[in-house]
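Most newcomers find our protein records easier to grasp once they have seen one. The structure tokens are whole numbers drawn from a learned vocabulary of backbone shapes. The record below serves as our worked example for the rest of this section.
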Amino acid sequence: MTPQLVLASASPRRSELLRQIGIRHLIHAVDIDETPWPGESPLAYVERVASEKSAACRALRGDALPVLAADTSVVCDGEIMGKPENGRHAARMLTRLSGREHQVYSAVSLRGDGHWQAVSVSRVKFRCLSEAEIGAYWDSGEPRDKAGGYAIQGLASIFIESITGSFSGVMGLPLFETAQLLAKQGIRVIA
């Protein structure tokens, strides 16, 4: 089947979410510098990174297919948490999230006939976690490449006391916002 767009991401979760809503796509991951700028707000950061990913992919491909990119950040006390560097770093992150609420910012950038962006901000509350749980979770391998050191769709789902916002946004691609952007490019999820 003919692809409808290019996903500028190697994330299997983003690809699966697009398949979930029936969007046929190619994958063309791009490597950009994702270092936050000094003083950059979490909102500005995810918008910039998603936009830079879609622009880089569009420039590399040079074809007519629209390009979809996204960026997701876990934010606690206004600080972007990033991905854990090692087990100790993951333990610090998860200990910080334990028993409290944090935000997950997920930006989407679509380049086709124009450039459109959208952002989802969700609030996630963790239950209190024990040191043993945090260690066992790291040992599972799941948190190694995940923003904030956890994957809501995996084992960490048992840590989530509540969520306000977009479950798919916390996974990495807010489907409500994505479908709205796709419609602007003439790609309808439900015809």
